[in-house]
Design goal:
- The chain is an all-alpha fold and 235 residues long.
- Helix content is 69%, strand content 2%.
- It is built from nine helices and two strands, in the order H-H-E-E-H-H-H-H-H-H-H.
- Strands 1-2 form a two-stranded antiparallel sheet.
- A hairpin with a 4-residue loop joins strand 1 and strand 2.
- The longest helix is centred in the middle third of the chain and has 26 residues.
- The protein is globular and about 45 Å long.
- The N and C termini lie far apart (43 Å).
Length: 235
């Protein structure tokens, strides 16, 4: 019995250690969204793991449906991984190298999300054509009921573009305070992009429950980045 208990404790310790690596954190985050976001049914408002996950991974609906669902889950995983990399050491004790690794994993996931979404949605309400005024008059469009959806999506695209620019810029060697500023910009911009992209014309957030996870993490990460920027101190 003692040997069995020690073995279980050892396995748990090894599991926790592996989860606290960049790969473990990124993998666990992605798995969480696939299980609890992709596996959630908006129709029944409950988890339908076997049905929804088999639909996605066995292509039971269509290849397009599978790509759309995986794109959503991976975009949330990329955003959450970014936020985790910016949490204070008191919450997430990570080394500088681990934070950089998480940041890079987030960047690559989100660049993939951007590429797929651009190909899939360009010319739709999500991403208007350049000839239709992709970034023209977003504030004016937000104020008018008949163009509000377009204005919200324009705002979301601007925020997403700024966030990814900050993600990429942060990879260069700048002064620490500038790095914290780009981290803060990516954290707030990325979360705001997700929020505005999922708003409908009634200003109601249309997401599954597990997709609310980034918001509290964003609040803690943004506060940590702001403190580090203002005080020139590490996370």
């Amino acid at each position: 019995f003692l040997l069995e208990s020690l073995l279980k404790m050892s396995l748990k310790a090894q599991l926790m250690t592996s989860l606290m690596t960049p790969l473990g954190l990124s993998g666990a985050t992605t798995a969480g969204y696939i299980l609890f976001y992709t596996g959630y049914s908006k129709k029944t408002k409950s988890l339908q793991l076997s049905q929804n996950l088999l639909d996605v991974f066995l292509l039971r609906k269509s290849f397009g449906h599978t790509l759309v669902e995986l794109n959503k889950a991976l975009s949330l995983s990329g955003l959450t991984t970014l936020l985790i990399s910016c949490l204070p050491s008191s919450v997430m004790p990570l080394s500088v190298d681990d934070r950089k690794d998480l940041w890079n994993k987030s960047l690559y996931i989100l660049l993939g999300h951007t590429a797929y979404s651009t190909i899939k949605y360009y010319g739709s309400n999500h991403i208007p054509r350049i000839t239709d005024g992709l970034f023209s008059n977003p504030i004016s469009n937000l104020m008018k009921k008949e163009t509000r959806v377009k204005g919200v999506k324009q705002t979301s695209l601007i925020l997403g573009t700024l966030s990814q620019a900050a993600l990429i810029t942060n990879k260069f060697d700048y002064k620490p305070e500038l790095k914290y500023l780009t981290m803060l910009s990516a954290v707030i911009g990325g979360t705001a992009h997700f929020y505005t992209m999922e708003l409908d014309y009634k200003w109601v957030l249309q997401v599954r429950p597990y997709a609310y996870l980034p918001f509290p993490i964003c609040a803690v990460a943004a506060a940590a980045c702001a403190r580090s920027y203002l005080t020139d101190s590490p996370l």
